[in-house]
Amino acid sequence: MVVDAEMRSAGIGAKLMGRIEKEATRFGCDITRISIRAHTQILQPKRLGR
Fold this sequence. Notes:
The protein is mostly helical. About 30% of the residues lie in helices and about 0% in strands. The termini are far apart.
């Protein structure tokens, strides 16, 4: 999932975790594990000098 920069800090992560926990409980899971990779900077192509 990619969250648009303008929508960050709008509680999306908390809502997603709530949904994950609800579904885990529904399936009888006692433990959930998620992995998050956050990119705080978009890298632009860099032109190499001669």
